Amino acid sequence: MARAFRQELRGAAEPIWRAIFAHPFVREVGAGALAREKFGFFIRQDFLYLREFTRVLCLGGAKASDLDTQDLFARHAHNTVLVERAMHQTFARRLGLTARALEATEPAPATVAYTRHLLAVAAAGSLGELVAAVLPCYWVYREVGRRLKRRLPREPLYARWIRAYASAQYGRLVQEQLGLADRLGRAAGEAERARMREHFVTSSRYEYLFWDQAWKPEGWPSERSERQRGGAPMGSAVRP
Questions:
Q1: pLDDT of 52-74, one tens digit each?
Q2: For residues 223 and 226, what is the distance between their CA atoms, to the nearest angstrom?
Q3: What does the pLDDT read at residue 100?
Q4: What is residue 90's predicted lDDT score, i.e. its pLDDT?
Q5: Which end of the chain is less congested by CB atoms within 10 angstroms, N or C?
Q6: Among positive and negative, which fits the CA dihedral 23, 201, 219, 32?
Q7: Which among 112, 123, 7, 113 is positioned nearest to 62, based on CA atoms?
């Protein structure tokens, strides 16, 4: 019996996923010990990321050739807009961030690179390539949620975040994308399957970098160097 295409994708990115699960940001969320400013940086960047991610899902619906797949992407895009935005606003309030502060956030390097990668695949690639590119975002968070839920931290903020990604509701969304990846992978030729694996691995790498930039929230290197010299970078603005 041939293995599901998802297993082929996961195997290609396994070393990256192991590094994600071992990352100190993930470990400290699980222990309830992560510094609030690091989690706040993550929430602000994730807010920006999900706005672009919604656009990618809408492009997936446009590429779909059947109503069931169009319905899947429409539901997932709607869920991202409503549920994820509400969740981030809840976390933002607990972190002392206003809606204005969220909207004023500038994207950090990994946020820019990751979202541009997804948008490029969505614009130029097949539906299978698009699904392979977005799948790590779905799948990694479910795996992180499941692993950390085994021993929830006492810190309510982090426990709530973990429960959201370990929930049955979120799991159903992930399963839908996994099933779609398997179906599209079976139908694809070898050249397209190779591109799907490449996009999946690239997105997995960006998932790692997204956690990593929140662990050491330093922004753009050129602006960091300017701040270290005591100046303000060009185009900087006072944020609320």
A1: 999 999 999 999 999 999 999 99
A2: 5
A3: 86
A4: 84
A5: N
A6: negative
A7: 123
Catalytic residue among 84, 129, 143, 207: 207
Alpha-carbon Rg of the chain, whole angstroms?
Answer: 18
Q: What is this structure's pTM?
A: 0.90
Average pLDDT, the chain: 90
- Active site (annotated) includes residue 207: yes
Q: Which bin fits 96, alpha (ψ -120 to 50), beta or left (φ > 0)?
A: left
Lowest mean pLDDT among 129-138, 220-229, 231-240: 231-240
CA dist 20 and 23 (Å) reads 5
Residue 198 designated active-site: no
pLDDT attached to residue 91: 86
* pLDDT (0 to 100) of residue 179: 98
Residue with structure tokens 């996961």?
A: 10
> Which tokens go with 106?
């500038």
Question: What is the amino acid identity at position 27?
Answer: R
CA–CA dist 121, 128 (Å, integer): 10
In angstroms, the CA 164 to CA 159 distance is 9
For residue 64, the model assigns a pLDDT of 97
Give the CA dihedral 57, 58, 64, 69, nearest 10 degrees.
60
Spans of all domains in the chain: 5-217
Which residues are CB-neighbours of 197 under 8 A, at least 6 positions away? 8, 9, 12, 132
The CATH number of the domain covering residues in 5-217:
1.20.910.10
d(CA 62, CA 178): 19
